[in-house]
Specification:
About 50% of the residues lie in helices and about 25% in strands. With about 220 residues, the protein is an alpha+beta fold. The strands form 2 sheets. Strands 2-1-3-4-7-8 form a 6-stranded antiparallel sheet. Strands 5-9-6 form a 3-stranded mixed sheet. Keywords: Coiled coil.
Length: about 220
């Protein structure tokens, strides 16, 4: 006598097949999960290796940057040493000169003269005999009043008798000043004709003074507007 009826045997067979399939699916899922976990672990390990390499690269870059900064520091110091001794004076003068159209400009100039200990000059003869060699050039004399001066002279430190020369920015720059005031001999400029109200000094003229005798050593450069 059979233990199960044909129907029951069929049901059991189907259940066995289903359970087998489910077991295969479960095993496949477990294997896939295991592979996925291993893949993630491999990726994590790879990322950690990349991070270690990046940290090493950063250390190398930081070391190189420190070396460049050490090299740049002396270069900056050398640049500072090459800055002309009169540059601060010229920078302050140019800042003053662009403000001549404001109230109390003359008072600002007076304060500037006192701050820098300037001498005031005027050309008394644009074609005076300059030396025994017969060279002609303008003759300059010191004056006491700001409005009558055409040039300001700043004594260059530690250079006896040496002066940096700039124009009086209060005075409009015109043909008479250019041709008869000693300006064309003292400064190279962009003057053409007419009258200019704004002066900027690119390079000061350099004068030498001895016993109140003023001599042009090197002309300067100005720009007029």
């Amino acid at each position: 006598m059979a233990l199960f009826s044909p129907l029951a045997s069929g049901v059991l067979l189907v259940l066995a097949v289903v359970l087998g399939v489910l077991s295969l699916v479960a095993a496949s899922y477990s294997w896939s999960a295991l592979l996925s976990s291993r893949s993630r672990l491999d990726k994590i390990d790879t990322l950690e290796q990349e991070l270690r390499r990046l940290r090493q690269d950063v250390k190398v870059l930081q070391s190189n940057l420190a070396g460049l900064q050490l090299q740049a520091a002396p270069a900056a110091g050398e640049s500072e040493k090459e800055r002309p001794v009169w540059q601060d004076f010229i920078d302050d003068y140019n800042s003053l000169a662009i403000s001549m159209n404001v109230p109390k400009a003359e008072e600002a100039c007076e304060a500037f003269l006192r701050a820098y200990g300037l001498s005031l000059l005027v050309c008394v003869n644009p074609a005076a005999q300059e030396d025994a060699g017969g060279r002609n050039g303008p003759k300059f004399s010191e004056v006491d009043q700001l409005p009558t001066s055409t040039l300001w002279a700043w004594p260059i430190p530690e250079q006896a008798g040496a002066y940096a020369i700039v124009p009086n920015p209060l005075i409009p720059y015109g043909a008479n000043l250019h041709n008869k005031g000693g300006m064309k001999e003292t400064f190279a400029s962009n003057y053409e004709q007419g009258e200019y109200r704004s002066i900027q000094v690119r390079l000061p003229a350099l004068f030498h003074q001895q016993d109140h005798h003023w001599k042009i050593e090197q002309p300067g450069v100005i720009r007029l507007k």
